[in-house]
Amino acid sequence: MSSFLVLNSNWFLSMEDAIEKVEAWTTEYNTFRPHSSLGGLTSHEMWKKSNNSLDLRV
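RESULT FIELD:
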């Protein structure tokens, strides 16, 4: 659902412009926006937390 927000709220001048804007939006969404479904963490914080809790011992 949220991926449509970047498409609906931007006017793209070219394919390169679209790629740049989508990449910037994705970075912002994953690193700066806390999500209530993740307990107030950003997607990146949740990813780091889940990777730190993995037991990699064999």
